[in-house]
Structure formats: C-alpha cells, structure tokens
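README, section 4: Worked example with a bound small molecule

Sections 1 through 3 covered apo chains. Here we extend the same pipeline to holo records, where the ligand is supplied as SMILES alongside the sequence. The molecule in this example is zinc ion. Nothing else about the input changes; the structure line simply encodes the ligand pose together with the chain.
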Amino acid sequence: MAKGEAEKERERENLDAPALDRAVICAACRHPITTPDQRLEIEGAHTHRLTNPSGLTFTLRCFAEAPGLRPLGPRESFFTWFAGHTWQLVLCGRCDAHLGWRFEGASVFHGLITDRIAE
Ligand SMILES: [Zn+2]
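The generated complex, written as structure tokens:
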C-alpha cells in the first residue's frame, strides 16, 4: 500500500516535470512563450501551412494557452484561416517579435510561426 502511494507520487512528479523545465520559447530572445503540453490539434493537425492574401506562407503550430505572448491590435474577421474564428496579431511579450496569431471562436488557440519559436 505504501509502495503504491510512492509510485503514484513519482508518476505525478514525472507528469509535472515537462511543464516546469521545458518551454516553447521566442527564437529571437528566448523568452518563454508556452509549454509543449499546450500543443493542440486544430482541424485534425497540430501544424498548418497557410498563405495570407499577400502571398506570404507561414507554417504554424497550434497551442492552447501561451502566456508569454502580447496581443496587438483589434480582432479581425476578414480572411481568417480558421472558419468561425477571428484573428489577432501576437508578439513576444519581451522583444515584440511577431510570433503568430491568436484565434478566437468556438475555441481559443494560438498559431505560432514555427521558425520564430524554439523548444
Ligand atoms: Zn522575444
């Protein structure tokens, strides 16, 4: 019984550990943006390759919470990449690098540009 309790405690520590010592960071300044456990699949995929009306193509990875970001400007609904979601620019909370977009609709998530973040 006591052994079982100890194992449970250890499992809990292992589950918590990745969130504490692994982070998804801004590639420019290494500011912590989110953690790998916030990864999401949106429309069946974690990674999306998308092109905006200006012809620029971005590869985005989707995350739920991303407390290291700072939103910029209004929420826009024109030309959204994800149906039923508004989008808003998000910057690194420390160095202001443009890291991606926050999408709000039936769900709220963040699409981060793969080559502007690091793990
Ligand atoms: Zn930064």
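What to look for in the output: Residues 26, 28-29, 31, 92, 94-95, 97 surround zinc ion (CB under 6 Å). Residues 2-21 form the longest helix (20 residues).

Section 5 describes how to batch many such records.
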